[in-house]
Each structure stands twice: as structure tokens, then as C-alpha cells.
Design goal:
about 140 residues; alpha+beta; eight-stranded antiparallel beta sheet; 8 strands
Length: about 140
């Protein structure tokens, strides 16, 4: 497995508030208009899953596979060109401050890894930035 890790982001809300928002994917409706349309198409979601078409990858479906309240949300792909797992880790640092880190574990052959490592890391960092700026209140 290849691992990609985002920078640690600081979110000015409690980990309970952040976890509550991120662990229910239907909350994406509130921020759907902020998602860049040039790379992501046909976005659909419910409480536990999310489906999107990513150019040039194709259709990818994520499902929440584990929730550890106020700490971790783990996603797995149910439809993807490669096996992929995404973890959102939360850690409170002060009363209303949460540190967040995203990690991707992907099962890729060496050739594919060489081709997609940079775009995957950039995408993960952009996702972390976007999640850090969400309106959690």
C-alpha cells in the first residue's frame, strides 16, 4: 500500500462539531457549490456514502466504513480503479480548536504510482484545505 498524508490543518471548532459535520456525508449539500466543477462531476451523496466522477479517473464511490466518535472517520472505495482508503483524523488541542490530518492508503502498482503520486498528493492537500474552511457552526 502506498500512503499519502496531508499537512495538519487547524480548524477553529471543537472536535465534536467537526466530527458531527464530516461523519454525515449528507452535509455536503451545504458546501456543494464550493466543489470545483472542472474536475468533479455527477456528485451524489447520502449519510454514509459519496459518489463522484473525477476527470480523468472516472467514477469513484466512497463509503464510510468506520467512525470512532470525535476522532476518526474511515472511508473505503466501493467502486474505483484502485483500492483506496481515506482516513480523517481529528485531535482537539484547545477548547474550540481541532487539528485535522487526512491519510490515503492506495493499492497501486509501481508504474501507476509513478504516474499519479503527485496529483494524488495535490488532491489530498486541496481536500484538507477545503475541509478546514467549511462552515462548522
Amino acid at each position: 500500500m502506498t500512503e499519502y498524508i496531508s499537512d495538519i490543518k487547524t480548524i477553529p471548532f471543537s472536535n465534536e462539531c467537526v466530527f458531527s459535520m464530516l461523519s454525515d456525508l449528507s452535509n455536503l449539500e451545504r458546501v456543494k457549490d464550493r466543489i470545483p466543477k472542472e474536475h468533479i462531476k455527477e456528485l451524489s451523496f447520502d449519510r454514509n456514502s459519496c459518489s463522484l466522477e473525477i476527470s480523468p479517473v472516472g467514477k469513484v464511490e466512497f463509503q464510510i466504513v468506520d467512525r470512532e466518535p470525535h476522532k476518526t472517520i474511515k472511508f473505503g472505495t466501493t467502486n474505483s480503479p484502485v483500492a483506496l482508503f481515506l482516513w480523517i483524523q481529528l485531535k482537539p488541542t484547545e477548547e474550540n480548536v481541532t487539528k485535522m490530518k487526512l491519510t490515503i492508503h492506495a493499492d497501486m502498482n509501481p508504474l501507476l504510482k509513478t504516474m499519479v503520486s503527485k496529483p494524488v498528493q495535490e488532491g489530498l492537500d486541496k481536500l484538507a484545505d477545503a475541509l478546514a474552511m467549511l462552515p462548522y457552526a
